[in-house]
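Record format v2
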Amino acid sequence: MWKFIHQLASPPHFYRIAQILIPWLAVPGLLLIGYGTYAGLFLAPMDYQQGDAFRIIYVHVPSAYLSMLAYMTMAVSAGIGLIWRIKLSHAVAAAAAPLGAWFTFLALATGSIWGKPMWGTWWEWGDPRLTSELIMLFLYFGYMALRGAIDDTTKADRASAVLALVGAVNVPIIHFSVEWWSSLHQGPTLIKEGGPAMDPGMLYPLLAMILGFTFIFGALLLRRVRAEVLFRERRTRWVKDLVLSGGS
Amino acid sequence: MDFSMGGYGAYVWTCFIMAGVVLVICEWRARLRHRRVYRDIEVRIKALGDS
């Protein structure tokens, strides 16, 4: 097991393995999203309170979940890189940040669009879930800006890792905000005592979308990490050999 | 199939289209970044070979 992890942390080995893994994540991801979209839009029964507007959850919930997953990926990788000085970990953290920012933007935008017909407003500053999610978007921007501001990759890795770790405190705040404070946002529906409070006809497409988005996130992350590894290793022998042989 | 989504069509379809666009952008930017890095390395190797 340790030998496998050690091998995987080797940039040339990871670069090759990632290329093989990408289609194995992307294809099931697209199939699950295809099923989830069709079933969520046309097969799932209408919500008795929210009408068809509830169907927005099929993109809002997966993107909100991924915004937090991407942050935890970034923070854990940055932490591993900071403690054990594994170069690949910093590459993973750097690659996760823009993806996390995009999914956070999507969660905020779809949540806002859902809020207009349901709450009568696009945005509510006093709401802890919305505000903490917006803070996460700023944390992603801060992380990327900090990386971009420091030319030395090693220094950029260390400084941004500290920011990523400090910002990780926001993830449980986002998750539990609807329980800790009075919020316009509805309480937990999927992860709660007694199981999900949803009709199976609504639940299965949502689970398919969450799983599909996660697979696609995995594929996108691997693609970005490959580019990051290539950039960081650009002066090494194996990269030179790879390019000279015409490999991708 | 009710494409009007009971009057909420503009909200629902906007969200799904936006999600599709974000996924496409993420894929496109990841490919673009890889291609740019790869090309830079190619150019550098060629320049070193010529000199």
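Chain A is about 75% helix and 0% strand.
The first helix of chain A runs from residue 2 to 8.
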